[in-house]
Specification:
The complex is a heterodimer of chains A (265) and B (184).
Chain A lengths: L2 H18 L3 H48 L5 H29 L2 E11 L7 E4 L12 E3 L4 E8 L4 E5 L7 E5 L5 E5 L8 E6 L10 E4 L12 E10 L4 E7 L8 E8 L1
Antiparallel strand pairs in A: 1-2, 1-12, 2-5, 3-4, 3-12, 4-5, 6-7, 6-9, 7-8, 8-11, 9-10, 10-11
Chain B lengths: L1 H22 L13 H11 L2 H18 L3 E2 L2 E2 L4 H20 L5 H27 L6 H28 L18
Antiparallel strand pairs in B: 1-2
The chains are: A alpha+beta (265), B mainly alpha (184).
């Protein structure tokens, strides 16, 4: 064996041991570095994906327009096309007003962010958003939409962050059930059903499907009180406690825009 | 020198694979994901000589470990030891497979990619079961392991032939040996 190969193997052994012994602080720093490296690819890829999606929507609108033209032969074709174009703009405008309105109505200081993509990790539920430490984002900040709680920031780089969704097994949220004194801990599950499990409820809790569940906002916790978390789907008593299955309030499968709660107003 | 260039190209492909696999849509109805990192790893482990392939396995483990890093109560849930051991073992196995099949063959690469993906997801699931407790081995869980593995099997030839176009001089696929002729 050549000397250079022996030296390479020794270097390799040292590196392997060093990598295995890295502490969580160093790992977080390295993870932030990796996010920084993939940030340009994620952002440009997300933009391309969005453009392709919009192209599909535009084609669909043209199909719909064509169908309408055929039904309304008496109407002026040019005027109808212009009206449809204006309607699209109006829809966009209404959507933006709704988003802006929620931001202004909210009692929290909110930082809007775009979802760049869902992470490919099979056993973890995380998404990437286009805001990072440059926008004042820090780990453990809650992430919400106008519908309800989305999750919490789990890793941050300069202009990209990772959000752990409420449907992840590791995202535990103290929650209370509307109209009762029941409180419990909500978390996702490894079995990917997209539901939440609210545990540590009373065995005798009389919960009905459709009841709303909100964050309890315990002291020392990271989630403020009163954010919609989900709706009760079912309840069953277990050996020591009661467990409710919840449907998340926010539609986590089709997230496009979210808000990071950076503090109270 | 040529091997060094291939090594650098493959190293650059690792973060690109991570970014691209996040952008790919989930496969309905089980929300299974397409994983590109194991496919890139298999190519590197088979195309590079032994010592560089070990370094490449270490780099892949580092990237995979950081991608899945979740800090719970100040502790990394999965850490880097599991991915490091996993990818090193597979690098050695793939090197042996590459030698046994006289070069980097696309069929072996595709099969290896599927096997690495299958075992990677299986190991992650088992480690989580040990760390978090419970063993929810249900049909949806099995499908979330099997579907990405099948996707890797299908995607691997695409990456293989693309890389061969880019770096044709680096990967020599030797012809399979002829059957010995014992007749006189």
């Amino acid at each position: 064996m050549k000397k250079i190969q022996i030296a390479s193997l020794v270097l390799f052994a040292v590196l392997t041991i060093a990598v295995c012994l890295l502490e969580s602080g160093t790992l977080t720093w390295l993870q932030s570095g990796l996010l920084r490296v993939i940030s340009p690819i994620s952002r440009s890829g997300s933009a391309v994906k969005s453009n392709i999606g919009n192209l599909g929507k535009d084609l669909l609108s043209l199909d719909q327009l064509q169908a309408e033209h055929e039904r309304a032969l008496a109407e002026n074709r040019k005027l109808r096309a212009e009206n449809n174009g204006l309607r699209d703009l109006q829809q966009d405008n209404n959507h933006l007003r709704q988003v802006l309105g929620y931001r202004e109505r909210s009692s929290f200081r909110l930082v809007p962010a775009l979802v760049l993509g869902h992470d490919a990790g099979v056993w973890w539920s995380t998404i990437k958003i286009n805001r990072g430490s440059a926008d004042g984002i820090a780990p453990d900040m809650p992430v919400i939409t106008d519908k309800g709680l989305v999750g919490k920031v789990s890793a941050v780089s300069g202009n990209l962050s990772e959000v752990l969704l409420v449907t992840d097994e590791n995202c535990k949220v103290a929650a209370k059930v509307e109209g009762t004194k029941e409180q419990g801990i909500s978390a996702g599950s490894r079995d990917p059903g997209g539901e939440l499990r609210l545990t540590f409820l009373s065995k005798l809790a009389d919960l009905q499907p459709g009841q709303k569940v909100y964050t309890a906002g315990v002291s020392g916790g990271i989630f403020p009180s009163g954010i919609a978390l989900g709706t009760v789907k079912s309840f069953h008593a277990r050996e020591l406690d009661g467990e409710a299955i919840l449907e998340p309030s926010a539609d986590l499968g089709t997230l496009e825009e979210v808000f990071i709660v950076s503090g109270a107003k | 020198m040529r091997q060094a260039i291939l090594f650098v190209i493959l190293l650059l492909l690792l973060p690109i694979a991570v970014a691209v696999q996040d952008l790919l849509p989930a496969i309905l109805p089980f929300q299974a994901r397409i994983l590109l990192l194991p496919v890139v790893f298999c190519f590197g482990a088979m195309a590079l000589p032994l010592v560089p392939s070990l370094f490449f396995a270490l780099a892949t483990a580092l990237v995979q470990g950081l991608v899945l890093l979740q800090i719970e109560s100040g502790q990394a849930e999965l850490g880097l030891t599991v991915p490091v051991v996993f990818f090193l073992v597979w690098a050695i196995v793939l090197q042996m497979a590459s030698e046994a099949t006289y070069g980097t063959r696309w069929e072996v690469h595709a099969l290896g990619s599927a096997m690495v993906t299958l075992s990677l997801l299986g190991v992650e699931f088992l480690v989580l079961c040990v760390k978090r407790g419970g063993f929810p081995l249900e049909m949806t869980v099995l499908l979330r392991i099997v579907i990405p593995s099948a996707a890797s099997l299908l995607i691997a030839p695409l990456l293989y032939f693309t890389l061969r176009k880019i770096v044709p001089v680096f990967i020599e696929e030797a012809p399979l040996p002829q059957k010995p002729n014992f007749s006189r």
